[in-house]
């Protein structure tokens, strides 16, 4: 059972009689439809529709919600939540001592939650407060994310620099286009319904080992994106899929610092590089 403690993650417990209403009107995901037993991707956006904080949300066993976020973002995230609280009957508690464990390729252990960012066939789960022993490494987790096109801030993109569509949140339950307003909703909804988005997460496969994160991905001589998480000859990247489609049609080479690469959209998204399927976020 591959599993590891994610030492760079922490949880914030949001509770109170108005916790669900508060979050529903603030974040991208639909909190009201969130089922027990799963963790759902979500984001708090800027008014311009870009991701200010990305996290995973789940229903806490006792009451309220667990928000699973990068440890380095937790303090600023709490300040932002407090800013929006006003008179809402809601409380925030950073649970610094709660371990965050991820696992995959096995039956889900008791108390674990299905990670909705991945296809169900991958059997990826999250477990909070577990004292179980890790038997996997960070590189194993990175390889899993790369294989399924699951990007995370810091490793794959900078906060306030991408729209939810860019990181496939419109495909993995991270954005709900039918619920009411939330911060940045108007921009994201307009982008979705007009089909103006053009950036997407792809898996990059190199003929040899790939260069470091941040290296430009080129279509001929034109940049189309840059590498995020890299392990060996595989990586994630957020690219302009319209430019990749043009390059493929023209048979222009795709490279990263001279290394020939192949770009693949995650199969679970149903997306392709054809123009009529372009629904990613524009730069």
Précis, in short:
The chain is of the alpha+beta class and 283 residues long. The chain has five helices and 15 strands. The radius of gyration is 19 Å and the shape is globular.
Question: Which short descriptors sum up this protein?
Answer:
283 residues; alpha+beta; Gyrase A, domain 2; Elongation Factor Tu (Ef-tu), domain 3; nine-stranded mixed β-sheet; six-stranded antiparallel β-barrel; 5 helices; globular; disordered C terminus
- N- to C-terminal separation? 40 Å
Which structural class best describes the helix and strand composition? alpha+beta
The first-level CATH class of the largest domain is given as: Alpha Beta
Global shape: globular
Give the CATH H-level superfamily of the largest domain.
Answer: Probable tRNA modification gtpase trme, domain 1
Biggest sheet, strands in spatial order? 1-7-9-8-3-4-5-2-6
Radius of gyration equals 19 Å
Mean pLDDT, rounded to whole units? 93
Helix-strand pattern, N to C?
EEHEEEHEEEEHHEEEEHEE
**Helix count?**
5
Strand content: 25-35%
Number of strands: 15
Outline the biggest β-sheet.
9 strands, mixed
> What CATH architecture of the largest domain do you see?
2-Layer Sandwich
Number of domains: 2
Write the layout of secondary structure elements.
Layout: E1 3-5, E2 9-15, H1 19-24, E3 38-45, E4 51-59, E5 65-70, H2 74-85, E6 91-95, E7 100-103, E8 113-115, E9 125-128, H3 138-148, H4 185-194, E10 199-206, E11 216-219, E12 222-231, E13 234-240, H5 241-250, E14 254-256, E15 259-264
Parallel strand pairs: 3-8
Antiparallel strand pairs: 1-7, 2-5, 2-6, 3-4, 4-5, 7-9, 8-9, 10-13, 10-15, 11-12, 11-14, 12-13, 14-15
